[in-house]
Amino acid sequence: MSRIKEFNLPDLGEGLTEGEILAWLVKVGDTVELNQPIVEVETAKAAVEIPAKWGGVISKIYVEAGTTVEVGAPIVAIDTQPSAGPLPDDMPGPAPSAESLAAVEIAPAEGSIEPGMIGGPAPGGRTAVLVGYGPKNTTAKRRPRIGTPGSSAPVAAVSAPVVAPPVPPPPVVAPPPPPAEPVHARVLAKPPVRKLARDLGVDLTVIVGSGPLGSVTRDDVHQAAAAATAAPAAAPAATTTPAAAVFDASREQRLPVKGVRKLTAENMVASAFTAPHVTEFLTVDVTRTMKALEKLKSRREFRDVRISPLLMVAKAVLLAVRRHPMVNSTWSAGTNEIVVKEYVNLGIAAATQRGLIVPNIKDAGRLSLRELAEALDTLVQVAKSGKTPPSDMAAGTLSITNVGVFGVDTGTPILPPGESAILAFGAIRPMPWVHKDKIKVRQVTTLGLSFDHRIIDGELGSRFLRDIGDFLTDPEGALLSWT
Amino acid sequence: MANGVSDVGADAPAGGFVQLLTPDGERRESVTTADGTTYSVDFTDEEYRGLYHDLVTVRRLDAEATALQRQGELGIWASLLGQEAAQVGSGRALRPQDMAFPTYREHGVLYTRGIDPIMPFGLFRGVDQGGWDANEHRFNGYTIVIGSQTLHATGYAMGVTMDGKTGTPDGEAVIAYFGDGATSQGEVNEAFVWAGVFNAPMVFFCQNNQYAISEPLERQTRIPLYRRAAGFGFPGVRIDGNDVLASYAVTRSALDNARNGQGPTLIEAYTYRMGAHTSSDDPTRYRIASEVESWKAKDPISRLRAFLTKQQMAGDEFFAAVDESAKTLALDLRERVLAMPDPQPVTMFDHVYPHGSPEVDAQRARFADYHASFEGSDH
Hints:
A: alpha+beta, Chloramphenicol Acetyltransferase, B: alpha/beta, Rossmann fold, 2 domains, 41% helix
């Protein structure tokens, strides 16, 4: 047993990863007894005194007071046999213990567990655990597997999957009964798999399970669901194909996530989990807007430009922004400021073959209605052709998503990163509506406004949405009274 | 009604409590409560010294465990510091046939049952599941879930009655330990209902240490806890939880009532947790130093030492010998804790089913193969 013993900072409270050395109660050369307090350490949970684990003489203090130390790092060394004379100069320090090597081994291979799941990656390079902050992922060196060239090639060892044995052992139970046999017992499936089947509308009793004891697995359900969707096209074949073949894994499509889809996903996740979203809805009678649109179309200035209800909604948004400038702003966490913009770079969400993009019309607030109509037309045509330059997609300040073109009524849009409000504009439908105290058929649509609740309170968001609705209900009246 | 103690005792909370030994070490011959019950003890000098030995030993073992946790040798520890008298007094009042249902803090009761103090350390070190033979030790498993053991105890006590083991002076009684925080749990109130209605041979022993982790008593109750019992139809008594004599006298009386078929009793041991809730807690965040200081003056060990000294039952030599013996036990405990073997990974399959299962056997074999596939495996 080594004469010099090194004391590593322990996990002082269920799942901590580090602690700050508050003060040393001893100095190098001091004689300490077993359990004599030697250092004060503060963790996220408590400030505590650590008693000496061995009696002896303090031979080394590794970290000064005020330093934050990771759990497991050595903080002090104690000479447990000081009476045995001076230490030889070349006496090696204590070697890392077997436990500390073994400890890093249990970290699962990166990517083997979904983010957020226990054992999976969590923010800050940590591993999610049931309680506490979770251990930091270290560059784990694993013991190589027997029979692999791992001992001389660590890369190979790291890339080897360690969560499952290389070859599954032969099944120890009888194979599942042939599908032709009538089902005489309840289908075996775990509760989450049953729920998945229910959610996907898959009948568990017709699936041949591939799991232990013939139980139905998650993959089996997914395959059954995919086969059911594909069924109409392959209907004649399906009637004669044995059930097992229908659920063949080769009938799944795997699409690599890249390009616009990847960017969209990243932006949506970033926005949804940083800006607290609130969405409000307003259903309005836009009959007068539609009439105004007809009038515009008949005017000479608008003869050669395509105009749509979107133009009127864009105009409504721009005018409402003038009355509520705060909605056109950015939360700047870095500088701890709210940046309110005097220009409106109006984003229009567009579905393209490459995916969703949100190009914007720069300084749209300064454009006349005719210029705005042209800009919208150009933006849509360029987007459809897939040639939108990156500069058109940068620096948006406020956006509209026209989900109405897909025939739906409204949605709860997610803010483009850096923007504080986005308006969803639904389908315009003839609907029974109370108009002048009588039920009439009117052109009606639903607006959905999502906003960043850090900046925009319910009152401001509601007023902004209400103004947009007022404009669309009575465009002429709004123009006369607002401008 | 046992509420209201005619002789309220020194430093008693409003409503009084049963106290036989004051913080200064003055002995009260007996205390009679409002319902006419008289509590007293009749110990020999040797028995008094034995109680002192118990108190010092359990405190010293507890201190060693706290140090071991700080040194990274235990995952967590729940210290009993300050509650030694409540535990030792009630524990020594148990008879061999009685059954105890502890929380995770009853190290002192465990000690008085004659159990090797190392028994729960596997749980706190994380090398076993804390499973021991409750019947062999007449001491159920440490229960982490707050208050649930009171239901287990009540069900067990109802079974004792059904087995015909109550109704005589040598009958069997059951004691359930819990804290002030647990009284807010549904389980504890359900246990009160069932024990009351079925006249179960139960003693509900509540160590009111004033804090449910960080929540003070006034957030748990509007009335003194012992008065809760009246609403459930059985007697409640409050004792000075730092007085080992009162703890012994009242618990023994309540256990005797239970074993004689007189039904349950709630005992509220009014005490104070001098340390943290567990080693993961920092009590300086929610209580003030002067409060802790005021309770130091009511220390359970110093009052018994003062009594022994005044009565000339013990001197410095005895006290030094007790300290030395406690230290020896503590160091022995330390050595044995450090020597506890880490469990082999495959042992996690051992207690899944009492008689095994083909599926678990297959999993165990696969898992063993997997571990054996690494270089340097020794199993």
